Amino acid sequence: AIAIQSFYRPHPQRRFHPKYWVLPALVLASLTLSGWSDCLFMGAKKQSTEFFSAAEFNLADEWRSLRNSPNDVVLISPKHNHWVPCLTGSPVWMGYAGWLWSWGINYRAREKDVTDILLGRPNAQLLIEKNSLRYAVLNRADQINGNAINLNFFTEHYKAVLNRNGWYAFDLTSPLNSMSPSSSVR
Hints:
By secondary structure, the chain is of the alpha+beta class.
Protein backbone atom coordinates (compact mmCIF):
# COMPACT_ATOMS: atom_id res chain seq x y z
CA ALA A 1 0.00 0.00 0.00
CA ILE A 2 2.88 2.37 0.76
CA ALA A 3 4.45 1.64 -2.63
CA ILE A 4 1.15 2.24 -4.39
CA GLN A 5 0.58 5.43 -2.45
CA SER A 6 4.05 6.75 -3.27
CA PHE A 7 3.58 5.84 -6.94
CA TYR A 8 0.26 7.62 -7.15
CA ARG A 9 0.73 11.12 -5.87
CA PRO A 10 -2.30 12.85 -7.22
CA HIS A 11 -2.59 16.56 -7.48
CA PRO A 12 -4.69 17.80 -4.52
CA GLN A 13 -7.44 18.97 -6.85
CA ARG A 14 -7.61 15.61 -8.72
CA ARG A 15 -7.26 13.16 -5.83
CA PHE A 16 -10.76 11.70 -6.25
CA HIS A 17 -10.25 10.91 -9.90
CA PRO A 18 -10.84 7.15 -10.57
CA LYS A 19 -7.43 6.58 -12.11
CA TYR A 20 -5.86 7.31 -8.70
CA TRP A 21 -7.92 4.98 -6.52
CA VAL A 22 -9.02 2.09 -8.79
CA LEU A 23 -5.69 0.24 -8.82
CA PRO A 24 -5.16 0.39 -5.02
CA ALA A 25 -8.78 -0.68 -4.46
CA LEU A 26 -8.38 -3.65 -6.83
CA VAL A 27 -5.12 -4.72 -5.16
CA LEU A 28 -6.71 -4.48 -1.71
CA ALA A 29 -9.79 -6.41 -2.82
CA SER A 30 -7.76 -9.19 -4.49
CA LEU A 31 -5.51 -9.62 -1.45
CA THR A 32 -8.48 -9.74 0.89
CA LEU A 33 -10.42 -12.21 -1.26
CA SER A 34 -7.42 -14.50 -1.72
CA GLY A 35 -6.86 -14.55 2.05
CA TRP A 36 -10.51 -15.41 2.68
CA SER A 37 -10.47 -18.18 0.06
CA ASP A 38 -7.37 -19.72 1.69
CA CYS A 39 -9.12 -19.71 5.06
CA LEU A 40 -12.27 -21.28 3.64
CA PHE A 41 -10.47 -24.05 1.77
CA MET A 42 -8.16 -24.87 4.66
CA GLY A 43 -11.18 -25.47 6.84
CA ALA A 44 -12.93 -27.56 4.19
CA LYS A 45 -10.01 -29.86 3.44
CA LYS A 46 -8.74 -32.30 6.05
CA GLN A 47 -5.05 -31.61 6.50
CA SER A 48 -2.83 -33.94 8.46
CA THR A 49 -0.65 -32.07 10.90
CA GLU A 50 -0.07 -35.17 12.97
CA PHE A 51 3.62 -35.68 13.65
CA PHE A 52 3.20 -38.95 15.57
CA SER A 53 0.37 -41.46 15.40
CA ALA A 54 -1.61 -42.70 18.39
CA ALA A 55 0.10 -46.07 17.93
CA GLU A 56 3.51 -44.39 18.29
CA PHE A 57 2.40 -42.66 21.49
CA ASN A 58 1.29 -46.06 22.83
CA LEU A 59 4.61 -47.59 21.76
CA ALA A 60 6.47 -44.82 23.57
CA ASP A 61 4.57 -45.55 26.78
CA GLU A 62 5.30 -49.25 26.47
CA TRP A 63 8.94 -48.59 25.60
CA ARG A 64 9.49 -46.49 28.73
CA SER A 65 8.24 -49.37 30.85
CA LEU A 66 10.42 -51.95 29.03
CA ARG A 67 13.83 -50.33 29.07
CA ASN A 68 16.07 -51.01 32.04
CA SER A 69 17.72 -47.63 32.36
CA PRO A 70 16.97 -44.23 30.85
CA ASN A 71 20.64 -44.05 29.90
CA ASP A 72 20.62 -47.14 27.66
CA VAL A 73 21.81 -46.15 24.19
CA VAL A 74 19.38 -47.02 21.41
CA LEU A 75 20.13 -47.68 17.75
CA ILE A 76 17.46 -46.23 15.45
CA SER A 77 17.19 -45.53 11.76
CA PRO A 78 18.23 -41.95 10.96
CA LYS A 79 14.80 -40.35 10.55
CA HIS A 80 14.04 -36.81 11.66
CA ASN A 81 10.72 -37.84 13.18
CA HIS A 82 11.59 -41.06 14.95
CA TRP A 83 9.40 -41.52 18.01
CA VAL A 84 12.11 -42.97 20.30
CA PRO A 85 14.14 -39.81 20.92
CA CYS A 86 11.18 -37.46 20.58
CA LEU A 87 8.61 -39.21 22.78
CA THR A 88 10.71 -41.23 25.21
CA GLY A 89 13.83 -39.14 25.73
CA SER A 90 16.02 -42.20 25.20
CA PRO A 91 19.56 -41.39 24.07
CA VAL A 92 20.19 -42.55 20.52
CA TRP A 93 23.52 -43.51 19.06
CA MET A 94 23.02 -41.37 15.99
CA GLY A 95 19.89 -39.51 15.09
CA TYR A 96 19.02 -37.59 11.96
CA ALA A 97 22.18 -36.48 10.12
CA GLY A 98 20.52 -33.24 8.99
CA TRP A 99 20.63 -32.01 12.56
CA LEU A 100 24.22 -33.09 13.13
CA TRP A 101 25.90 -31.29 10.24
CA SER A 102 24.12 -28.04 11.08
CA TRP A 103 25.91 -28.09 14.45
CA GLY A 104 29.25 -28.79 12.78
CA ILE A 105 29.50 -32.33 14.16
CA ASN A 106 31.65 -34.69 12.11
CA TYR A 107 29.37 -37.73 12.01
CA ARG A 108 30.59 -39.57 8.89
CA ALA A 109 32.43 -42.39 10.73
CA ARG A 110 29.45 -43.08 12.97
CA GLU A 111 27.09 -42.89 10.00
CA LYS A 112 29.14 -45.59 8.27
CA ASP A 113 28.96 -47.76 11.40
CA VAL A 114 25.18 -47.24 11.65
CA THR A 115 24.84 -48.22 7.99
CA ASP A 116 26.94 -51.35 8.52
CA ILE A 117 24.84 -52.40 11.52
CA LEU A 118 21.42 -51.67 10.00
CA LEU A 119 22.29 -53.49 6.79
CA GLY A 120 23.60 -56.47 8.78
CA ARG A 121 27.08 -56.44 7.30
CA PRO A 122 29.72 -58.88 8.64
CA ASN A 123 31.17 -56.36 11.12
CA ALA A 124 27.76 -55.44 12.58
CA GLN A 125 27.96 -57.55 15.74
CA LEU A 126 31.46 -56.33 16.48
CA LEU A 127 30.32 -52.70 16.12
CA ILE A 128 27.35 -53.29 18.43
CA GLU A 129 29.60 -54.71 21.14
CA LYS A 130 32.34 -52.09 20.62
CA ASN A 131 29.90 -49.20 21.01
CA SER A 132 27.91 -50.69 23.93
CA LEU A 133 24.56 -50.39 22.19
CA ARG A 134 21.73 -51.73 24.34
CA TYR A 135 18.67 -51.67 22.09
CA ALA A 136 17.70 -51.33 18.45
CA VAL A 137 14.22 -50.00 17.66
CA LEU A 138 13.35 -50.54 14.02
CA ASN A 139 10.43 -50.63 11.62
CA ARG A 140 9.87 -52.71 8.50
CA ALA A 141 9.73 -49.55 6.40
CA ASP A 142 12.99 -48.09 7.75
CA GLN A 143 15.69 -47.33 5.23
CA ILE A 144 19.25 -46.09 5.35
CA ASN A 145 20.83 -44.43 2.34
CA GLY A 146 17.99 -45.72 0.17
CA ASN A 147 18.46 -49.35 1.23
CA ALA A 148 15.95 -51.28 3.33
CA ILE A 149 17.38 -52.27 6.69
CA ASN A 150 18.14 -55.94 7.24
CA LEU A 151 15.53 -56.81 9.85
CA ASN A 152 16.33 -60.51 9.46
CA PHE A 153 19.83 -59.88 10.81
CA PHE A 154 18.33 -58.62 14.07
CA THR A 155 15.71 -61.38 14.39
CA GLU A 156 18.34 -64.05 13.78
CA HIS A 157 20.86 -62.68 16.27
CA TYR A 158 19.00 -60.80 19.03
CA LYS A 159 16.02 -61.21 21.33
CA ALA A 160 12.97 -59.14 20.38
CA VAL A 161 11.54 -57.37 23.44
CA LEU A 162 8.83 -55.48 21.57
CA ASN A 163 6.83 -56.33 18.46
CA ARG A 164 3.86 -54.01 17.86
CA ASN A 165 2.37 -52.36 14.77
CA GLY A 166 5.37 -53.22 12.59
CA TRP A 167 7.86 -51.87 15.16
CA TYR A 168 10.50 -54.12 16.67
CA ALA A 169 12.78 -53.52 19.64
CA PHE A 170 15.75 -55.83 20.04
CA ASP A 171 17.87 -56.27 23.15
CA LEU A 172 21.37 -56.11 21.70
CA THR A 173 22.90 -57.46 24.92
CA SER A 174 20.97 -60.75 24.56
CA PRO A 175 22.32 -62.54 21.50
CA LEU A 176 20.51 -65.68 20.41
CA ASN A 177 22.47 -68.88 19.97
CA SER A 178 20.29 -70.19 17.21
CA MET A 179 16.95 -69.38 15.76
CA SER A 180 14.77 -71.41 13.43
CA PRO A 181 14.46 -69.99 9.89
CA SER A 182 10.67 -69.94 10.19
CA SER A 183 10.80 -67.38 13.00
CA SER A 184 12.62 -64.72 11.01
CA VAL A 185 10.80 -61.57 9.98
CA ARG A 186 9.63 -61.65 6.38
